[in-house]
Amino acid sequence: MFTDRLLLLAPRINETGLQLLTAAHARGLPARTATGWRAPQDVPPLVHLYGGPLYADAVGRELGVAALEELPGWLAELPRELTRRSVELLPLAEARALRRRAFCKPPSDKLFAARVYQDGSGLPGPDALPDDQPVLVSEVVTFRREYRLFVLDGTVRTGSRYAVDGELDVTPLAEDPLRQEVAAFAAELLTVCSAGLPSAVVVDVGLLADGGWAVVEANPAWASGGYACDPDGVLDVVLRAAGPLIELRAADRPYCRELPVVTG
Question: Which residues is 164 bridged to in the sheet?
């Protein structure tokens, strides 16, 4: 039984959060859903978090949590044979000047809608976001099937299909007919391109319309839905991805989210 630590979930719990509560309780790890957006005072010394960036920013620093996330430019720095498309990390001011169709998204936080823009004029203006805000700008491609992989120490801990032809279509990776192809591509990716990723992270991959495999994106495990992933595997990754700062591994220090000091 764990007496010195707690898994704390954001107030707006989702299906993955419910599964994590059950998985944590099954292994004797105390877990509960927060009742508000301030750091609770009645917590043990060691806290793990699961929830979105807003909750991590609201309570993470006060609770002594290290929230790991991929480096902003990780996807843009991958070789084209793994992305199968051009990907650039641009300042928002430069992205606004684009006069071509492109898929644009913030590297991590959902500061604006991640979607295909006909040109950069549809991106948020300087009154909404600063000119130096990083933006991932990708060539538009079509994914036929997409998969979510929870990765721990460079190995896929659990996975799930989540989309087919752009529509939600969820099934455990173990039951997907392309599971061996997914595993092979993930192994190649994680062997040669682990730089830029923390030890615990989510990586999405997909099968393109032309039959090639490509990376979709990476996301923080502590803010990602599990779809049909095994909850125990998700929990293993989440506990490392947003855990006590005093337990942070040296290799993961470059991937710590800069959590703000919350006052008032």
Answer: 145, 167
